[in-house]
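Quick start: what a row looks like.
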Amino acid sequence: MNTVLRFRNELGSERDLCNRGLSIKKRVSRKTECIAIKKVQNIVDKYPRINYTVHIFCSANEALTYDSVLVITESFNALLTDKPKLFRSNFRRGQMYNNGTKGIDCMKENPIVPWEHGSIIVRYFKKTITRGLTGNLMFSGTGFRRNFSVDISQMTINSQMSKVRLIKALYVFSTLADNVFHFHQK
């Protein structure tokens, strides 16, 4: 007989605990089984809201930097999975080639030419969807982040946080100084 205990975790979904993985060496009576279930249920009830999530304390800049590196990593992983031979022509015999020429041409007399794989890399950046520290990461066709909002808060004299501004995906903001923000609509 399988004993199943159900409880709600912090996210609200039900989780099953079964004795299927345990080897039972001797047969126990129904009364003993009920006592064991009640003991386990008491432990579960005693700690109903154990939070197993890891809290990472970092600044907004650190979280956004982490998310940007995550998007780059996810994009290149998807790109190299779909097209494993894409960069083969760029790296030959220990040398790097760019648009058919050896090395990176940085001479002023030569015009700046976009990298031959730049457009496909940007396309993979735009179609990357993943979960980062700042929430879901997804981008529009123009490369702007979609479906996100930012609360800018400040601490009052009484040590209470008050919301200064809510920024949705319609707005672009840039930092002018440590606590000064410039807002403009896209």
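That is the whole record. The chain has three helices and eleven strands. The CA atoms of residues 102 and 184 lie 43 Å apart.
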